[in-house]
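Below: protein 1.
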Amino acid sequence: MTTLARRLGLADAVVIGLGAMLGAGVFVVWGPAARAAGSATGLMIALLLAATVAACNATSSGRLAARYPESGGTYVYGRERLGPFAGYLAGWGFVVGKTASCAAMALTIGSYLWPQQERLVAVLAVVVMTAVNLRGITKTAGATKALVVVTLGVLSLVVVLGLSSSGTPKALPETTATPLAAAGLLFFAFAGYARIATLGEEVTDPHRTIPRAVPIALGIVLVVYVVVALTCLEVLGVTRLGSSSAPLAEVVSAAGFPELSTVVRIGAGVAVCGVLLSLVAGVGRTVLAMARRADLPRPLAAVHEHWKTPWIAELTVATIVIAVVLAADIRAAIGFSSLTVLVYYAITNLAAWTLGGPWVPRLVAGAGLLGCVLLAVTLPLSSVLAGTAVLAAGAIAYALKPRHRRQ
């Protein structure tokens, strides 16, 4: 079996985690989460709840990645600790949910950069990001660093302009607060730290690097999210924020700087490219791991001799993403993606629980498991039903496989 090359240090791993998380929350999820929360207080409580569950998951992911430093993330951990079906279900949920997320991110890029031709721009973004990934993980890390800088620059501009506004948001009625439902949606914004674990086969000294990189990336993102959320609420208010499709551009306009909203749109579109870049990389590695064990077609496990990347897996993922982009607008599928990812992390925590060891990590794993279940069942009913149907379809496909392949 051809393995991937270990080329990522601590800084590279942290940056990939930042690139996966920054953008998903800041540019996509605030509107749906604000509508679900119903109030400013509810939104902030939801953000802290989502961050707490994410921190528990991050701790469990770090422990498992140090024990099993190979591509695939929880697909591998579930197989090793809980059995083949648990690993398969985690991998299936991750691949399907994150493929939908890739399409959502691509369409977001199009809606920011060229709303009149969002599908065309989305397809081009998928092609370009896939081409970067195919050239090797160091190219992915280098491009992600540049995109993270752009992201932080855009967010800093929005915060400075927003807080310099002398006006206050127009008083609009708030609805009943439901922080749990909003927390399930906001969890979508933190899920990118899994990208560090799924790239475990390409990280140098993974036993030390991964457990350090995951909490560092998560902590930085939480601080950024809190600052941006408070700025959006201060300028727009929760009701207007909940109805906005481009909240950061609207913050700048409402703050009295409409001429800079175009700059924010361009910066946001470029920044979300970082999310798409790391998403394609993470899904491709999980497909690679599943193909190695015949849970997906074997040819998908091919590794390019020169670039050391799972090139057939990444091209396949890109093709499916483009098909989804052309077929439908799925930016409203954040809840669906959140459900499949919460199931993924529930399996992560259950696997971490079986590692034993000190009581504190086991307590964290137990809290993470309960948190994932709680957030999953409080998602919008349509998201729960859609996600459950997809997971059930995967389980049926697994059951129909010959017994020797299931093992």
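Below: protein 2.
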Amino acid sequence: MKIPFFRRKDFFSDAEKQMIVSSIQAAEKQTSGEIRVFVESRCKYVNPLDRAAEIFAGLKMDQTAARNGVLVYVALKDRQLALMGDQGIHEKVGNEFWNKEVQLILSHFNRTDYAAGIAHVVEEIGEALRTHFPYDKDGDINELPDDIVFGK
């Protein structure tokens, strides 16, 4: 299934977008892992994990060499989110890690500090990826883009 992606400018200011992208780039300089952020207004499923799984596949995040891609999914108006790690990273960190990170991002969201919450959770995910999938200067390539993907 092809997922339509749109470049929405109104979710974040330019400075906030740059903060999020910079956090992705900084995290990925330390790891072979890949982090993507997908933001949209509304989640078209009752369970945001189902929507995150659809986006994860649509962004080809399940095709990284080490299966260490992580998606940060946020539906702002519906106030839903999901963190989805591929098999390689999930086997290393487990459910407890993801639950802790959801609580971290929610603490920011409860203060309507969305961009900072996303950037902070990206940093934490980057640390976990660095621990389990350290950067290899001889063989690492950036397998996925670092930009924020915006849905409807």
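The radius of gyration is 14 Å.
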